[in-house]
Amino acid sequence: MDSGIGLLAATAAVRRLRPDADLVLSLDPDGMPWGPRTPQDLTERALAVAEAAAAHGPDALIVGCNTATVHALPALRTLLEPGIPVIGTVPAIKPAAAGGGPFAIWATPATTGSPYQRGLIEAFADGVPATEVPCWGLAEAVERADEAAIDRAVAAAAELTPDDVTTVVLGCTHYELVAERIRAAVRRPNAPALVLHGSAGAVAAQALRRIGELPAPEAPAEGTLTVLLSGREGELPVPALNYAEGRLLPAVTPAG
């Protein structure tokens, strides 16, 4: 679940690990973007999106959105667990800090500077210098697949990223869809290749662990895909097909 196509990164990661999985994507085009909403309003939207997904009887629910995880995860777990495990998306600060060099956290303005993110830095950065970078308009540009707007937003965030940064944490799931453009924008002359840390792979693996399943990338069956748009069955938004993660998914078929 997510407000928009930011969930594609985790969805694609699950699909690669389990081609036979039946996937239900629950989006909220009627309420997006979630970032500017108050925490209470965002939580209400997230609960509605989760309930729509839960009606399809999933084995687990992935919250494919950092901002929703920040504000709504406790409420989502109260609503659905223990019947449906809820897996949140947390910025990969710990592995980024393990590299030892200065790193930046690119996130939405709503998440940047939040007590939640500051708490993660304090808990997991282990004293490694970390710079929080607000990425104005980047998630919205990715959602629309607006190439020019993506370039402008990435360039603006790159300007705010210190020159000595060796690693960037992608603190919004939308950003994982344009990871290579971010890498190119932040690359410094005569510097090693920039290391990017997203969350999709770890989230997908955690979801399988929570339901007692193992990766089976050679599974012969192709799982189904159901898309819910603010609770209504529909099709994957057209901009999703601009990204490799969206093109990985099959045509929409009923999950039963």
Please describe the structure with a list of short key phrases separated by commas or semicolons:
256 residues; alpha/beta; Rossmann fold; disordered C terminus; 9 strands; three-stranded mixed sheet
Architecture overview:
This protein is α/β, with parallel strands linked by helices. It has 2 domains: 132 residues, Rossmann fold (3-Layer(aba) Sandwich); 106 residues, Rossmann fold. The protein is 39% helix and 13% strand. It has 10 helices and 9 strands. The chain has a 4-stranded parallel β-sheet with strand order 5-4-6-7. A 3-stranded mixed β-sheet has the order 1-8-9, covered by helices on one side. The protein has a two-stranded parallel sheet with strand order 2-3. The chain is globular and about 50 Å long. The C terminus is likely disordered.
Topology:
Elements: H1 8-17, E1 23-27, H2 39-54, E2 61-62, H3 66-80, E3 86-87, H4 93-98, E4 103-107, H5 115-124, E5 130-134, H6 138-144, H7 147-159, E6 167-170, H8 179-186, E7 195-197, H9 200-210, E8 225-229, E9 232-234, H10 244-247
Parallel strand pairs: 1-8, 2-3, 4-5, 4-6, 6-7
Antiparallel strand pairs: 8-9
